[in-house]
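not sure who needs this but someone in the group chat was asking about MDR family MFS transporter from Streptomyces hebeiensis so here u go. i didnt clean anything up, its just raw.
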Amino acid sequence: MTSSDAIPRESADGPRDEPDAPPARLTHRQVVTVLSGLMLGMFLAALDQTVVSSALRTIADDLHGLTAQAWVTTAYLVTGTIATPLYGKLSDIYGRRPVYLWAIALFTVGSLLCGFATSIHQLAAFRAVQGLGGGGLMSLAMTIIADITSPRERGRYQGYITAVFGGSSVVGPLVGGVFAGRDSLLGIDGWRWIFLVNVPLAALAVVVILRVLHVPHQPVRHRLDYGGAATLAISIVPLLVVAEQGRSWGWTSPLALAMYGVGLVGLVSFVTLERRMGDAALLPLKLFRIKAFRLGTLLHFVVGIGMFGAMTTLPLYLQLAKGMSPMDAGLATLPTMAANVTVTLVVGRLMSRTGKFKVHLVAGIGSFTVAMVVFSTLEVDSPLWYVAVGMLFMGAGLGASMQTITTLAQSEVDRRDMGAATASANFFRSNGGTVGAAAFLSILFSLAGTRITDRLTAAFQDQPFRRLAEEPANAAALDGVLRPEGGLNLEDSAFLQALDPRVALPFLEGYVSAMQAVFLTGAAVSLLAFVVAAWRVPNTRLSAD
């Protein structure tokens, strides 16, 4: 980078209380230079999510925890959700770059630990460490873009960041498929490289960010709201534990009711403490007086439920019902990536040109709702072109909606609160994603056992099926799956590959029937977001200043 392209470095002055003056406007070339560093850090986090999603079945089978796999996703999302608002405050105080580098460091440590996990619950614990770092990568990237661009320009540049997720959605499953499909590599289980590969990628990201990420910064005095973080954890974690364990405990069991009570106490304590903290609050309550911010956070939460729910369930459909390898399942998601990247870039340019965003927001959520409806009608023998139709609607919907929801949440917020506001908006999206991943997988495995049992009971009444199931190869595969008392052991799905397709069919039909219920739930949630976007979001024009 030449001296003529140099970007003003962060202020070395002490904290000031009045950062009211907007930062100096950067040229397009300078903004793109900063973006190159942000996109590399974002790619690190986005790649990890998609790599893990595509290989989760293989990982869960190897660690004998298929029905507990939701912990691997939710543990990451829980810690990332709680840490996200803290990153906003920390970056307001110390500057975006050093906090961003700390986020990458934590993410890398978590990745190393994940690479050596020996059980599904240990992996979930290490994913929680990863989440502490990953929680800052998305929100800080969006905050930095908001720092250096006008409201109208944000959609254009945030579109590049959103496109990173589109690219990772195809690269991630391919990388995950390659690693998960190998028994070992350099003497280490293949799937473990899914996490270990983050280490060199993180090193490259650090080098690039140290060279290019020099953004204007005026420090703001904040007290760090550790009490808010603690009470937030108390309010969220018990409810997510119930979402994961409710099917085994019973949704109204004494233990579940106790968790509900703890969560309620945590929520009341959190709101009370945030009122007392005022501007120093982890989630400043004054921001919720701003209608655009209030609607943006609500939509982030609701759309996040459907998005993460679909991202965790669809790979299972492709691998279980269609018998695809993780790599083949990744290739099958190409329509999602193509639609996402294309629509993201087009919508970003249209927003920059016209200043209008509501039409794209409503159309995007509507498209995603259609995708959920399509997925809810999938059968075991549905053709791949039909699955691809749903993927196109999903990719286009997320491409149009995610960047416009962020723009909505930021559109009326004062610059001095931009870090906290952007982190808060991403907090609600991550929280929605946590709820979606935990609840949708809980619904799936709650229903799957019963529906598989019903189909097996009917199938065993047919004498040819019974004789087929009793053949040595099929009987060996079913050994340990069919319990003597009549229950099922679904912790490992690898037995399906050894079964005769005719014997496997009742299992697949039961799984797919449960997935239909999951996607139908996602459609209902997305429809709620569509109604809010269409009737409540004002049709305003973004400022060009």
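also Confidence is low (pLDDT under 50) at residues 1-24. if thats useful
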